[in-house]
Amino acid sequence: MTRLKVYLSICCFLFIFLKPDENLAQEDINLIGKVQSLAEDVSNVLVVNLNSQKSTITDSLGFFKIVVKLNDLIQFSSVQYLKKEIKITETVFLKKIVTVDLIENVISLNEVTVTPYNLSGKVENDLKRLDVGPIVTSSTLGLPNADLKIMSQSERLLLEADRDKYFRFMTVEEKIKEKNILGYLTVGFTINMGKTINRLSGRTETFEAMVSRDKKMELQNVILSKFSKITIAENLNIPEINIDGFLTYCLAQSDFLKLSNEEDIEAIWAYLKTKSIEFNKTD
Question: In the beta sheet, which residues pair with residue 55?
């Protein structure tokens, strides 16, 4: 009898404490989640609750929020990712937070060889057979000011601040106008006050420095288009982390802008090699 009581007590305990919570299955929660991927672009991923048909999309960082119930099925879909579905388990439901990893959708296309118009597939041979006319530009059309160089903003500011001469003799028209006002003719000159004030205040010098800086930055970009930072680091014995510092060192040299007139790539490399030796000594 005693053993029967013990057995019944255990059964009652298991029934009470291990019985599924029916209220839990009916409860709604706001599930907060984050979509992530090796491709990093996780924005605008469509998140759909297939049970309630409610949906949302992820923000620029991949975060989303959607109303769910226990055992709901959530689907994630996007053009660049494979479709994925997750079930709201009790663990996810209680935590109210979930992280979803998506796999990039790589579309493999079969190789296709297209040979229209009797092309051989060799560009150098096909180009010789093409009847290519002259390139039409503003210069070939003879348009006015077609060959004028487009000035940068710094160059325009410098031109405005340092325009014309500091002084000049008065023109005939100015003398006649002065005679009409004063009643007699004089010999005089006019002073360019704008240019004078800009020079004395340092405004002109500031614009000159801006023009020089722009030219140096443009030249630096040209150099990096010819030699990558990795190439410079490996061949000039400079740690890659210090390449920006080395380029800044070159920009500060008085002879750096001379490279703008240098078309020989070997001469540019020789300059960098020389400056790298100086830079490594100062580092």
Answer: 48
Measured distance CA(96)–CA(137) in Å, rounded: 63
The model's pTM: 0.42
What token pair was written down for 208?
């000159």
- Give the Cα separation of 229 and 221 in Å (integer): 11
pLDDT tens readout for residues 46-95: 999 999 999 999 998 889 999 999 999 999 998 888 999 999 999 999 99
Q: Measure the CA–CA gap between 218 and 164, rounded to whole angstroms.
A: 28
Domains of the chain and CATH, by start: 26-101 (2.60.40.4130), 153-203 (no CATH), 227-282 (no CATH)
